[in-house]
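Structure ticket #2291
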Amino acid sequence: MDDGAARFLRCPRGHRFDAARQGYFNLLTGRGTEFESDTAAMVQARVDFLGGGHFQPLANAVSSAAESFAGNLPLVLDVGAGTGYYLKALQERVSVSASVALDISKYALRRSAKELPDALCLVCDVWRPLPVADQRVDLLLNIFAPRNVPEFARVCSDRAVALVVTPLPHHLREIAELAGLLGIRPGKATEVATSMAEFFDVIEVRRVEFGMRLSPIDVRNVAAMGPAGHHTLRIDVDSLPPTSDVTAAFTVQVFQKRAHTS
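Resolution: structure written out below.
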């Protein structure tokens, strides 16, 4: 990467990628990707909701797990970084030498590049080979994002830690029907552990659950920032009570890569 006025990346095959004006790099070439990325409206809803501090307990739990199991971190990779909210919280608590934020949405990476000026923010498809060299990553974050486990194993160093966060079935249950939220399968955390088992061992599972008092606008934003945001949301905020008591519930699974499994 050139650190001058014309910043760029060059891959081993010689392809050059110039930095966007907002500071991120778009690695989706040719036909791009078949997967639907978060829209500008979805990203704005996420920025507004997270900016209210509603998910701060989850950010604290992720940072605490990283601090407990990973120590000082030469390189952190956030796969599905979104707006960079959790990676920023981690950097404020744990010593990180370098970080890479990956997401399929250019709108999300614009926010990441703004919030994480020292991070390398890359628009890419997680189902393709990740743009990271073999065995370079010391901590991998995967928060509400797809998991390309063989690629996770390839880029993680021996004994590297991976933190995977998934919602529990009763997450946001109080507003699920109203907001048209997708259901969360029972046993999802077990499915995640099974999918990681070829390369990673579970070393701890943390359950994070807390209550939130949400305004009507908060309810709309939490619905619009997730998969439901890809569809037309018909939430009449004027019909909602001034505040809604809503449950947030997650599983934070801590994995460690087994040696010589890349």
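Closing remark: Helices lie at 40-51, 56-69, 85-91, 106-115, 149-155, 176-179, 188-196, 216-224.
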